[in-house]
Design goal:
single chain; 302 residues; Arc Repressor Mutant, subunit A; D-Maltodextrin-Binding Protein, domain 2; 3 domains; 5-stranded mixed sheet; 3-stranded antiparallel sheet; globular
């Protein structure tokens, strides 16, 4: 008779889904040796190898594939049970899991801080990841709520805008276009741009803007973070289209300037997204209500 523990099954499910011990450890918020230990204990219980590691690649054995199909369903059922228990206990205790794209790091702490102060018994897990990884989490229904700038297409989801997310044109303060009014888009299009990685919501919007105007987008460099883009803009490497949210936490913007371009800022929104039909826990529903109420204070404070 096997005596697998919930901790062992969660570790195995994460490794089997991600095919990576390091990514599983990051997701579970434990060390990689701890993940390996749980897998080893589980394999001892099963009596057969569940995973094979060849170089840096991880593969499922036949027994591993069988267990993964079983435990994925079981953990989903257990997760719903945990949600029911949290609902029955009410708001004095519980866990809220939020996944958000990287740009939200400029404002999400100012929302979560007051929420935690009002509900100190609630434990919050905030995952800040790029858009591709957020969509993976959404597809796997691994969090209560998801925050992004462009809701996904082709997925069964529900989305609710909660805050404006204007897209602006950013230039170095010494650029010759700084200070001019109503710069024609055709003139802007002659500039070279610094962009985020493929799949980024900001880049998707940027590419659509240029496509709608049947104008080629001249990309100078692709960078993996908004901070890197701002530093590159300040260094005179090119212009950028960024969310105005990326500037709100910087008290000193003397090296950067927002250009007054026809058609800008592009008015977008930040969205709360969840799988369609997903039943929110009491904790998640309370956060959603708090956000609707508190976001007006956040906007006025900017």
């Amino acid at each position: 008779m096997m005596h697998a523990t919930l901790r062992q099954l969660r570790a195995f499910e994460a490794v089997a889904r991600l095919l990576s011990f390091s990514r599983a450890a990051e997701e579970l918020r434990i060390s990689q040796p701890a993940v390996s230990k749980q897998i080893r204990l589980l394999q001892e219980q099963v009596g057969l190898p569940l995973l094979e590691q060849l170089g840096k690649k991880v593969f499922l054995t036949e027994a591993g594939r069988e267990l993964y199909a079983t435990c994925a369903d079981w953990l989903g059922t257990w997760g719903r049970f945990e949600q029911t228990i949290a609902n029955l206990k009410g708001l004095k205790q519980g866990r809220l899991k939020v996944a958000a794209v990287t740009t939200t790091k400029y404002f999400m702490p100012r929302i979560l801080g007051p929420f935690c102060a009002r509900y100190p018994g609630i434990d919050i897990a905030l995952e800040v990841v790029n858009r591709d990884r957020l969509l993976d989490r959404l597809a796997g229904n691994r969090d209560d709520l998801y925050v992004m700038g462009v809701p996904p297409e082709g997925m069964e989801t529900e989305s609710e805008p909660f805050m404006d997310n204007p897209l602006i044109v950013l230039a170095p303060a010494t650029h010759p276009l700084v200070g001019r009014e109503r710069i024609p888009f055709a003139e802007l299009a002659r500039e070279t741009f610094l962009v985020r990685e493929q799949g980024s919501g900001t880049r998707m919007t940027m590419e659509r803007v240029f496509q709608e105007r049947e104008t080629p987008l001249q990309i100078k460099m692709e960078l993996g973070s908004n901070e890197a883009i701002k530093q590159a803009v300040a260094g005179g490497l090119g212009l950028a289209l960024l969310s105005r949210s990326t500037l709100s936490s910087d008290p000193d913007q003397r090296e950067l300037a927002e250009l007054d371009v026809e058609g800008f800022p592009i008015l977008r929104a930040w969205y709360l997204v969840r799988p369609k039909g997903k039943q929110l826990s009491v904790v998640a529903a309370t956060f959603l209500e708090f956000l609707r109420e508190h976001v007006q204070l956040l906007v006025r404070g900017q």
